[in-house]
Here is the input.
Amino acid sequence: MSDNVVKFRKIEKEPEPKPPRQELVLPGWVPFAVLIGLALLIYGVQQSGLLAG
Here is the structure.
């Protein structure tokens, strides 16, 4: 008798797609510009006499 019973499954809902996350893409020259800026900052601090050494 149980052979004639149709078993129903719950319909699985697909999860809502997340909006694509935009990643920050920096040009290749940015790390060099940061290093040069840091070097200029250190040089300027040394020239101003704030770092006695």
Q: What stands out?
A: The mean pLDDT is 85. The CA atoms of residues 30 and 36 lie 10 Å apart.
